[in-house]
Amino acid sequence: MSTRAIILGAALLLAVPLVASEKTDVLVMKNGDRMTCEVKGLDGGVLYVSFDYIDGTASVDWSKVARLESKQLFIVKTQDGSMYVGALTTTETAAGRPVKIQVVATPEKEVVIEQSQVVQMVQTSENFWQRFSGEISWGIIHSKGNQSTQYSLGSQTAYVRERWNAKANFSSNLSSSTGTNASTRNSLNLTARRFLPWKNWFYSGLGTFLESSEQGINLQSTVGGGVGRYLKDTNQASISLLGGVAWQKTNYQASIVPLGSQNLAAALIAADVRLFQFKKTSLNANATVFPALSEPGRVRFDTNASYYIKLFSNLSWNFSFYGNWDNQPPPGFSGSDYGTSSGLSWTFGLK
User: Fold this and answer.
1) What's the CA gap between 210 and 184, in Å, rounded?
2) Would you say 177 and 197 are in contact if contact means Cβ atoms under 8 Å apart?
3) Within 13 Å, how many C-alpha atoms sit on residue 104's CB side?
4) What is the DSSP string of 262-293?
5) Which is it for strands 109-114 and 118-124: parallel, antiparallel or unpaired?
6) Euclidean distance between CA atoms 350 and 132, whole angstroms
7) Cα 302 to the center of its chain, rounded Å
8) Secondary structure letter of residue 5 according to DSSP
9) Which of 25, 35, 275, 295 has the largest count of CB atoms under 10 Å?
10) CA–CA separation, 234 and 232 (whole Å)
């Protein structure tokens, strides 16, 4: 992966314009507070809203909301995997009864959902750029003792529609110190997911591109896909599994033994876990195992995990871990590359 390609990938992920809508939505809390705002969306039990008189995005505990009115269009997802599109209103309920959200596509097409069953709401629009959300993170560590410096840069962007979504993740890590060669790792992950007619089932495709100086990898390209299912999808946790097949092509750095490129057909087993705690922390972790079909006994394993602590508004502190392992690397090459980083994260769009 060339430096030019890395910069281009990062620019494409980061160059997302931020567009605000009119703040005419009405939010009423269970304690009686009434606010006029712009509802941006719901994720992880947190309702994200913005105000004309407050800088940034505010986080509201979804379980404390008593009434919600918005003429904007939202893609609404429930715990059983059902998806709806429409404006939002709240039906009248007796005291002590669960709050129910009404999703209105047209006067003839509406559905009423119990509030606790709603796990995600994403603001949608005819405007292409208003459908994006994501985050940018960065960090730097410097030590005077051995003149070592570590940089990290990351970005993730999501594009959501009613029955499908697409995501892009970019990360770059560089470590250098006096007397040693700089160690670099750059990765770009692209995924697309479409929901099947059966609730909580989906099929997904992926494409990943990796450069790792520690493993001697100039470029490792992976394409694959499969069928998956959400095992749990609530306002506290989201857990999904995916099974399928993949193809990997790896170009190694020049060595004593000429390698050129290696091609590998493999099975694909992936897990994705997201855990949430309102106003405090969240954990995102994923792991993918590639048991080789063309080289029985060879297994590759990739993982990424990020732990976020909210500071204020759209700013969080994050601690991340990444790792790549190959139990049968070419002779003279390392079978692993892993590391940690920490820094600040800034969210945009939904959050």
Assistant:
1) 11
2) no
3) 15
4) EEEEEEEEEEEEEEEETTTEEEEEEEEEEEBS
5) unpaired
6) 8
7) 16
8) H
9) 25
10) 6
Contacts of 332 (CB under 8 A, 6+ apart): 255, 256, 257
pLDDT tens, residue by residue, 276-286: 887 678 899 99
Return the structure tokens found at 168.
């892009």
* Both structure tokens of 26: 């009405």
Token pair belonging to 112? 């009423």
Please name which of 299, 304, 316 lies closest in space to residue 351, comparing C-alpha atoms: 316
Nearest residue to 277 (alpha-carbon basis) of 239, 305, 308? 308
Backbone angles phi, psi at 131, to 5 degrees: -95, 0
| Helices of type H across 19-85 | none
Structure tokens at 283: 């954990």
Kind of pairing between the strands at 54-61 and 65-78? unpaired
Residue type, 235: N
Answer for the pair 106, 287: CB distance below 8 angstroms, yes or no. no
How far is Cα 272 from Cα 284, in angstroms, rounded to an integer? 8
Report whether 227 contacts 267 (CB < 8 A): no
3-class secondary-structure state, position 172: strand
DSSP string of 24-88, one letter each residue: -EEEEETTS-EEEEEEEEEETTEEEEEETTEEEEEEEEGGGEEEEEEEEEEEEEETTS-EEEEEE
Helices (H), the chain: 3-14
Burial class (CB in 10 A: 0-12, 13-18, 19+), 109: exposed
For residue 27, give both structure tokens.
């939010």
Average pLDDT taken over every residue of the chain: 84
> Could you report the per-residue pLDDT of 96-121, keeping only the tens digit for each?
677 888 898 766 678 999 998 999 89
